[in-house]
Amino acid sequence: MNATETRSQKSWPVDGWTVLNSMCGYSSFAFFCLTLPLFLPVAMILPGGRRRWIATAMRFAMRTVFTVTPTVSWRCDGDVTTLKNARVVVSNHEGMLDVLAACSLPGIRTLLAKTWVFRAFPLGVAARAAGLYNSDALTPEDFQEGATAMLPDSRVGILVFPEGSRSRDGAVHRFRPGAFVLAKNLDVPVVPVVIAGSRLGIRPGSLWIHPTRVHSRILPAMQPQPEESHRQFAARVREVMVQERHRLMCEMLRHGDLDRHRRHRSFGLPRSVRRQIAAEDLQGHWRLLLKVSFTDGNWLILGSEWSTMALTVRLLHPEATIQLVETNEDRLAVARHQWLQDGDQVMTNIDTITINHPTAVMCAWADNHPQRASVLTRLAEESVTMMVVRGPVDTPNGFALTSFGMEPWSVLVRRAA
């Protein structure tokens, strides 16, 4: 085996629940997409307007899809009252299940969608029937002078994914300013909706539906500050949503909402290995990572053990590039099976460690490991902002030490300059 290797993307395990999820989810979704146009004549004559009844039908349909998909569920919380009357709603776009979650939200609104949505079958049938807007066909003027013509009914809002497309790496990418320009010209606030867990259901490049919980959290409405440009406002809303998404993922992991997904990642491993993973999981040390502050950047993992903590890092930081140093073949096999992905680097020769300036470090090496002290000292002298270390450790200059009550693990956080 090479001392260093770069990982390529590996598919997640496919068990019986994954197959059943896919059969039930896609069949029910196709059924509702094809039957929605049949409801249009009824919606035209019902009191309250066509938009209201189309939104009601879509909400019922998408919530039913979640219900009949055995190990996938959806939950919504937050400022629901504000959302019901919101004119402009923005949401992060981390997975294909986001569309179902968006349609399941309370309130009357349409969506902004790409051209491929209208061309895809049977999704395009429902998109045309529901009157979704094609974002590729709109011009900047439609968001400015044409804002009132775009949304003439004050009771009807619009939901926009301002990233423009689904995130391939799990990160919340830069927000485009269109929705924020629209809100200004309508003289209304922007209501952010944070989605977490969707990407764990259908990963990019795959159609299998894996066990997950999709959680939508409605945040308070946000207004632009004086002298703040559209792009600055978009960036500020994005930053709020990034932080809230991390808190929401920590909350879901803490409450056990993603326990089935975490167990699902072990499917296909030998029974003896699964027992080792289960035993480590019961110790609960991985929960320490739910208490530390959000860290944006790459990770270095020195010893993965049975990957319960490393998998938690991956779930909380799907976009991060991870360097793993591991010499145990069984534990390395678990890492490859569960969480290593595109661009991650595996190093098996501890004598030739090349560190690529990580932001955060997790060290599971024993305190008598020959390279532990020297490597941690070297990292403390670089740009590392946080180190999660197992066993006793000397506090380097410029760092603060805490254990969060999770002995034998400690957390070293660099103090602000």
Short description:
This protein is an alpha/beta fold. 40% of the residues lie in helices and 17% in strands.
Structure notes:
The chain has 417 residues and is an alpha/beta fold. It has helices at 16-45, 50-68, 80-84, 97-104, 115-119, 123-130, 140-143, 147-150, 178-186, 198-201, 230-254, 259-264, 271-283, 308-316, 329-338, 372-380, and strands spanning 4-6, 72-78, 88-91, 109-113, 133-134, 157-160, 190-196, 212-218, 299-302, 322-325, 345-347, 360-363, 386-390, 399-402, 409-414. A hairpin with a 6-residue loop joins strand 14 (399-402) and strand 15 (409-414). Helix 1 (16-45) runs antiparallel to helix 2.
Q: What is the percentage of strand-forming residues?
A: 15-25%
CA radius of gyration is 24 Å
Question: Low-confidence spans: pLDDT under 50, at least 5 residues?
Answer: none
Structural class based on helices, strands and sheet pairing: alpha/beta
**Mass-distribution shape:** globular
Distance between the termini: 43 Å
